[in-house]
Design brief:
heterodimer, A: about 450 residues, mainly alpha, two-stranded antiparallel ribbon, 5 strands, globular, B: about 625 residues, alpha+beta, Beta-lactamase, six-stranded mixed beta sheet, five-stranded antiparallel beta sheet, 22 helices, 20 strands, elongated, binds zinc ion
């Protein structure tokens, strides 16, 4: 099958690979700083040293992944998926309990987290399922089945419990959207999410009102929502053809009133139904300052670390917040704090843009595929990366709930690095075969 | 709704736009956090930079000759950072610290309320011995550390009432002066409190970078400043005299105030029973304070400036002086001892002023004051009494009586010299005559004065007509004393009128029948006057005031011994011993001294049954 022999080095998407390699190196530098082991980098017992070992292992893994024919991944998708499901079930029983969640298999001093591999396996499975014989999205059965394929591993992970990873599985909605899921569902979900976040954030703030004095900032938000919504509705109505106007008005009004009722209900529920400590917990989740100094200790320190970086940061291994251990889990989930403190705005914005570039690049790879399998898989990879990026960075800069989840290719951790290597390696191999494979 | 391939492919742009949008929001947020505001930067600085206060050494207290009275000694505070105490075996720790488990828990939760991340004191003022026992075990407890802090040490354990307490600030102190932080100490009473601003000095600051465990990781030197020691305070006290006075008053209740007449400087200032102020520091403070505050003799009550007694016979000399100055009598005026209206004692019938003072003749001074307040034959007895008392009150107040003499000494009471308003309030206007108020003519009735007033009176006699405000501080940090303390206060009586009074006071001690013979000291011309304050159902207070030597007097003093009987029995010999000690530097007769040193209640045999001695005042002194 000489026609299928691949000129790997010329077909490989070096842009993506180098971007990722760059992220890994940057991440490692920050891990060195965060673990305050600058002097003993080569001590392989330390975290920076361990990460170095993992980087070596993953480089070999990447070469191996690229060497395997894409057909293999496609054919073994189901097997991967079933093995991962079995592992996820097993870890619930025999896993090590770390930080309240049973998500690890202990192997000596190293640990393996099956949920890191579940993402790849699910991506393969969904790609395989939706691409079989040009399976039409239009049947209800297909839609429900594909959702179930995502929901089963997500459900098992929820049992660990590991909310962060479950959230990542939520990213598959982009994959389904690309394959035909109604945009309205996505829009409605995003709208509800945005409304909920704004309601909670503004509801906790204080604002001044004529005749009333100081009260919750939510009511200004509600007024703004009403006015802007009404304006948008009228504009839309004016722009639509006369025969659709009635329909537009009805649906638009329902959407606007529904949004306002949803926000008001959420706000009143927060204020009057929840207990003080429950409300506080939600506020902490959203990075709102609460009076209780212990409640949001982690996120306040994280924000202080990033904010203190200024334009250009304090220099590598020079940040006192990082060096003196103020930021919790600063080599894993909070690694971005070290970037912010030591590399400043230039460095941290650079890392953000690097991730944006990586994700857009993967989306670009997706759209250049002739193979439906590869396209769907690439979308899954982009979605998974995006969700990690969104939740992790959003959390440390106080824009997303505090949910522990690693920053891809950046955070310390072998399972995480290996999982993302798998995810990406398979994609790069499939992409390299894009010209002569039509599946 | 069915979508074709192109439409679906366009969805790439929507997904891409979401990714890009999120990225831009993040960049914007980072810009806001890192570039546009210092809020987070300041927060990080608050967390990582700690300002260590370098405590200045507190000014010392010296006596008039530069002898050390109060100095600084090291003590150790055990500090706790509650965050690191979560997994500590508290019962083992309680045993190590010698605390009850509940007590330790209370202290820990108090520290936790202050701050979970910052150190606060768990046990205060451990001495070197307690510290030595504790320090080898400390490594077991990551949240515990030791802070060295100087405490005050009263070198000789004297004048504790004057020196006052130096102890931890309370919430109110911290609100009033932001310099004080939790765990800081300040003077809370006496000289320590009065001269707190001088004594405390200026603290220095050292800036540190700390880690999350509050360990110092680095230092920033450019902002540091060094502490400036507090100013020393030189007291007017004479250490030897003070020690001797406290020794003589041991086992008794009362007060001694000795003044240098020329300057108004207080040489000795005793409120008996006295106590060792060192007991009120460190871990023993609670128990010691409790025992002092509950003691029936009230050792914490400063009798020298707060004890108000009727001046009694001693007051008669003031009456004599005022009357002579007003021309009501002369030194040669004889008055019949008419005992119909007011009693008298001793065999005499018609004395002149000198004899009347020596005999303490009540009818004599009754009549002296009657003459003074009835000088208007055209007016009735009510108006005469009112007008007479009017000028009389003013005259008496010139002697410092009824005023907060030495008002800068904390707790000073003015005593009482009644004026017309006072009697108007009691009896109503024009409802009182001299017959109503005559008991004040012999120093009884409503009159009240403190031992300090009486010592000042002795100084006035010594100076023949003036005094300087009695005071305790000679110098603060080399700046000398305020001008206000160096002003002569004239009492408005000519110097010549003092000679007959001093003759009488000399006779009180030197005459064969004098009441103050026990104050006699060979080689020193001492002038004195006994006083006896009567008490219902209890022995009289024994009072003596004296000055010596008569020419160029160097010491003027008053001695009060409560419930000890006649003035001559106990107060006079104590005054005599103090005069001898101060002027000769030593006491010749150890027999005379021993009688006083060993004495305790009952000092008046007549009241042997009601006035039993009370066990030693001082709580068991530390070895
Ligand atoms: Zn008489």
């Amino acid at each position: 099958m000489s026609s299928r022999r691949l000129q790997l080095t010329s077909r490989l998407d070096w842009v993506t690979l180098l971007t990722v390699a760059f992220l890994v190196v940057l991440g490692w530098l920050n891990i060195v700083s965060a673990t305050a082991e600058a002097e003993v980098v080569w001590d392989l017992g330390g975290k920076a040293g361990k990460q170095l070992i993992w980087m070596g292992v993953c480089s070999i893994l990447m070469v191996g992944l690229l060497a395997i024919e894409g057909e293999f991944y496609i054919r073994t998708s189901v097997i991967h998926y079933l093995v991962v499901l079995a592992l996820l079930a097993a870890v619930l029983v025999i896993g090590k309990k770390v930080g309240g969640a049973r998500s690890w298999f202990g192997v000596g001093s190293f640990g393996i987290q099956p949920s890191e591999f579940a993402k790849t396996a699910t991506a393969l499975m969904v790609a395989w399922f939706l691409s079989r014989d040009g399976r039409p999205w239009r049947t209800l059965a297909t839609r429900l089945q594909s959702m179930a394929l995502i929901a089963v591993p997500a459900g098992l992970i929820l049992l660990q419990p590991d909310a962060g990873t479950v959230l990542v599985f939520g990213g598959f909605v982009f994959v389904l959207y690309r394959e035909g899921l109604s945009g309205n569902v996505l829009l409605l979900g995003v709208t509800a999410l945005v409304l909920a976040v704004l309601t909670i954030l503004l509801g906790a703030s204080e604002s001044w009102y004529p005749f009333v004095g100081t009260s919750s900032g939510f009511w200004w938000f509600l007024v703004a929502l009403g006015v802007l919504g009404l304006g948008a509705l009228l504009l839309t109505r004016a722009a639509t053809l006369p025969r659709f106007r009635k329909q537009t008005t009805i649906w638009g009004s329902i959407l606007l009133v529904g949004s306002m009722l949803f926000s008001t209900g959420l706000h009143l529920g927060m204020e009057h139904i929840l207990q003080r400590h429950q409300r506080e917990r939600i506020h902490v989740l959203f990075g709102i300052d609460v009076d209780n100094p212990d409640a949001d200790y982690n996120i306040r320190h994280a924000k202080a670390a990033i904010g203190s970086g200024g334009w250009a940061g304090k220099g590598w291994a020079q940040g006192p917040m990082t060096a003196y251990g103020f930021v919790p889990e600063q080599e894993t989930d909070f690694i971005f704090c070290t970037v912010g403190e030591e590399w400043g705005f230039l460095g941290s914005a650079g890392v953000v843009l690097l991730f944006v570039f990586l994700i857009l690049r993967v989306l670009h790879l997706a759209e250049r595929q002739r193979s439906q399998f590869t396209r769907i898989y690439a979308y899954a990879v982009a979605s998974i990366l995006f969700m990690h990026f969104l939740v992790n960075v959003g959390m440390v800069i106080g824009l997303a709930p505090v949910i522990g989840i690693p920053l891809p290719f950046f955070s310390y951790g072998g399972s995480s690095l290996m999982g993302f290597t798998l995810l990406l390696g398979i994609l790069l191999r499939l992409d390299a075969e894009r010209f002569f494979v039509l599946r | 709704m069915e979508l074709n391939r192109t439409e679906l492919a366009a969805r790439q742009r929507i997904v891409g736009a979401i990714v890009l949008g999120v990225g831009l929001v993040f960049v914007f947020r980072l810009f806001q956090m890192q570039v546009t505001t210092d809020e987070w930067k300041n927060r990080a600085e608050r967390l990582t930079e700690e300002q260590e206060v370098l405590h200045p050494s507190r000014g010392l207290c010296l006596d008039r000759h530069g002898e050390l009275l109060v100095t600084n000694a090291p003590s150790y505070d055990l500090m706790v950072v509650p965050r690191f105490m979560a997994e500590v075996d508290t019962s083992a720790l309680a045993a190590l610290l010698g605390l009850e488990r509940e007590d330790l828990d209370t202290r820990l939760s108090k520290a936790r309320r202050y701050s979970r991340y910052k150190a606060s004191p768990l046990l205060r003022q451990l001495n070197a011995e307690e510290y030595a026992k504790l320090s080898p075990e400390l490594w077991r407890y990551p949240g515990l550390s030791i802070r060295t802090k100087p405490v005050r040490q009263n070198v000789h354990g004297v004048a504790s009432q004057i020196v006052g307490e130096y102890r931890e600030v309370d919430r109110e102190d911290m609100n009033r002066d932001s310099r004080y932080r939790l765990g800081d100490y300040k003077g809370k009473s006496g000289i320590e409190s009065q001269f707190e601003l001088e004594l405390r000095g200026t603290p220095g600051i050292r800036h540190h970078l700390v880690d999350v465990r509050n360990n110092v990781r680095n230092t920033l030197t450019e902002l540091d400043s060094l502490p400036v020691s507090g100013n020393d305070v030189t007291l007017t006290l004479d250490l030897e005299l003070q020690q001797y006075a406290e020794a003589l008053m041991r086992g008794k209740r009362g007060a001694v105030v000795a003044i240098e007449p020329a300057t108004g400087e207080i040489l000795a200032f005793v409120s008996a029973p006295s106590y060792d102020g060192n007991l009120l520091t460190g871990t023993s403070r609670g128990a010691a304070y409790d025992s002092l505050s509950k003691h029936p003799w009230k050792p914490l009550y400063n009798r020298a400036v707060r004890g108000t007694y009727r001046p009694g016979s001693i007051f008669k000399m003031v009456q004599g002086l005022v009357a002579m100055q007003e021309g009501v009598i002369s030194e040669r005026t004889h008055i019949v001892c008419n005992r119909d209206i007011i009693g008298c004692h001793g065999a005499h019938t018609q004395d002149d002023l000198r004899r009347a003072i020596v005999h303490s003749c009540n009818p004599y001074f009754y009549d002296v004051m009657r003459r003074g307040v009835s000088r208007h034959p055209d007016l009735d007895k009510f108006d005469n009494a009112r007008l007479g008392l009017g000028w009389w009150t003013e005259r008496i107040k010139d002697f410092g009586l009824g005023t907060t003499l030495g008002g800068h000494i904390p707790g000073t009471r003015p005593g009482l010299v009644p004026d017309t308003t006072y009697y108007d309030n009691i009896y109503g206007k024009r409802h009182w005559t001299y017959r109503t108020i005559y008991s004040i003519s012999i120093g009884e009735g409503e009159l009240l004065a403190t031992p300090l007033h009486m010592a000042n009176l002795a100084a006035i006699m010594a100076n023949r007509g003036w005094y300087m405000e009695p005071h305790l501080v000679r110098d603060i940090g080399g700046k000398g004393k305020p001008d206000a303390l160096q002003q002569r206060q004239e009492v408005g009586v000519d110097a010549e009128h003092f000679e007959p009074i001093l003759d009488a006071m000399q006779l009180v001690i030197e005459d064969r029948t004098g009441t103050g013979r026990k104050a006699y000291t060979r080689g020193i011309t001492t002038c004195g006057k006994t006083g006896t304050v009567q008490n219902r159902n209890k022995a009289d207070h024994s009072v003596f005031m004296a000055l010596a030597p008569r020419e160029n007097p160097r010491i003027a003093l008053s001695v009060y011994v409560e419930n000890a009987g006649a003035g001559g029995d106990w107060a006079a010999p104590i005054a005599g011993l103090l005069v001898e000690k101060y002027i000769h530097g030593e006491v010749a007769s150890s027999e005379r001294e021993a009688r006083i040193l060993d004495a305790t209640y009952p000092l008046d045999p007549e009241f042997a049954e009601t006035d039993m001695p009370v066990p030693p005042t001082n709580p068991t002194p530390a070895p």
